[in-house]
Amino acid sequence: MMMDKAYISQIRNDFPIFKQRIRGKKFIYLDNAATTQKPQSVIDAVVSYYSEYNANVRRAIYALGERATKTYESTRVKVAQFINADDPHSIVFTRGTTEAINLVAYAWGRHNLGPGDEILITEMEHHSNIVPWQLAARDTGATLRYIPITRKGVLKLDKPEQYFTDQTKLVAINHQSNVFGTINPVEKIIAYAKHVGALVLVDGAQSVPHMSVDVGELNCDFLAFSGHKMLGPTGVGVLYGKRSLLESMDPFLGGGEMISSVTMEHATWNEVPYKFEAGTPNIAQVIGLGAALDYLTNIGIENIHRYEQELTRYTLNALVSIDEVMIYGHSPAHGAVISFNVADIHPHDLAQILDQVGIAIRAGHHCAQPSMRKLDVPATCRASFYLYNTPEEIDCLYKGIKKAIRFFK
Ligand code: 7TS
To answer: What is the DSSP letter of 158?
Structure first.
């Protein structure tokens, strides 16, 4: 399917937020790596749950409870299909990527790591794929190691044997950097990890919403991602794990519905994935995520990826034509995230000036301070796209940057 101008305009019509004006201007949202906007169908799914069949799941023996449970569980099947997992039991609902990674760091890490073991991550991780491993290393005596990055925002993988060793027990790596837009060669990294017998967790927060990610083909052990970055509500995310691995793990949180039986002394666990879904889950959000997956599937994730690639190229070409713009991240495999600075204008000042003309970009360290240190900058500006962004919006960004340059001269 061609994602042409008419089709994008039709897509935009599905998002009520774009109907408003900001400071009298058309609203241009270029902070999709932080969170995405929601189509009416997702909003309707959440409203419909609360207004028509609000009930707790997996316990209510009445019509509404059955409908809630059925709809909640149907999202699990949709998620499994979306990432090509052959078993819906390998899909655990979490609050988001952060919680999914912490789940592995606690439920797997605390029981399988010890002194002499190594956890391998990279210098371009989001804090949510750094700090849980720092804590796990601290608590278990394991060592945390980093695959370095170049100044171009690309992993240095020329001597893999330096990093992938017999001590490596877990490799946790982002599929796409939220700072550089680099799409990392996860296939290669998974192969290196498997060669030394390590497990692999892929942080798919920035990849699953934008490209086809097939866990069957990748053969990763875990994949984490967030619903709110793929048109879904906040408060819901996913941990995919190989079923046998999830079964071998201890629970993360204890509470209702995660047990098989409880005595005064101890408890036994429910089957996976319920063992990892203690307490009342975010039911409305999971149901909303189901609607988001329907929306994305209907358009086709490959079509979305192709369109974003065009938009990314268009933006990079526009930005490199401005002498004062410095771009960070020069990987040939580049997703829809572009970090840059403009002359010596502080990123927050640029973001504020763009806000005056209705353009929302991100400015800051993007929860990736090690990457910022590597670049030797305290912060960058970041424009990130999704299926509803247009070349006309990029033209406005270009004009906004030119205006800021004139203003600060
Ligand atoms: N991993 C990556 C690669 C991310 O980009 C993010 C969020 C997370 C993990 C955490 O996701 P959460 O849904 O649990 O918060 N990244 C961003 C960002 O770039 N700007 O705001 C959040």
So the answer is: S
pLDDT digits (tens, 9 = 90+) for 24-44: 899 999 999 999 999 999 999
- Centroid of ligand 1 to alpha carbon of 345 (angstroms): 25
381 catalytic per annotation: no
Who contacts 11 (Cβ-Cβ below 8 Å, separation ≥6)?
299, 387, 388
For the CA atoms of the chain, what is the radius of gyration? Answer: 22
DSSP code, position 198: -
pLDDT at 363 over 90: yes
The strand pairing partners of 383, in sequence order, are 338
Query: What is the CATH class of 44-298?
Result: alpha beta
In ligand 1, which atom is closest to the CA atom of 100?
Answer: 14
* pLDDT band of 23, cuts 50, 70, 90: confident
Q: Determine the residue type at 17.
A: I
CATH architecture of 5-35+301-408: Alpha-Beta Complex (3.90)
Atom 11, ligand 1: which residue's CA is nearest?
A: 97
Strand partners, 26: 21
Q: 3-state DSSP call for residue 282?
A: coil
**pLDDT above 70 (res 1):** no
Class of residue 159 by CB neighbours under 10 A (exposed 0-12, middle 13-18, buried 19+): exposed
**Rounded distance between C-alpha atoms, residue 398 and residue 315, angstroms:** 8
Kindly report, residue by residue over 319-350, the tens digit of the pLDDT: 999 999 999 999 999 999 999 999 999 999 99
Q: How far is the CA of 177 from the centre of ligand 1 (A)?
A: 10
Pocket test for ligand 1, best of 124, 127, 128 (most atoms within 8 A of CB): 128
> What is the predicted pLDDT for the residue at 374?
87
Span from the CA of 367 to the centroid of ligand 1 (angstroms): 8
pLDDT in tens, 61-96: 899 999 999 999 999 999 999 999 999 999 999 999
Tokens read off for 182: 């680099």
| Residue ranges per structural domain of the chain | 5-35+301-408, 44-298
Q: Is 106 helix (H, G, I), strand (E, B) or coil?
A: helix
Q: Are strands 325-328 and 337-342 parallel, antiparallel or unpaired?
A: antiparallel
282-295, pLDDT tens digit by residue? 999 999 999 999 99
CA distance 348 to 76: 40
Q: Which atom of ligand 1 is closest in space to residue 178's alpha carbon?
A: 5
Q: Report the greatest alpha carbon distance in the chain.
A: 72
Q: What angle do CA 115, 119, 124 make, to 5 degrees?
A: 145
Nearest ligand 1 atom to alpha carbon 31: 20
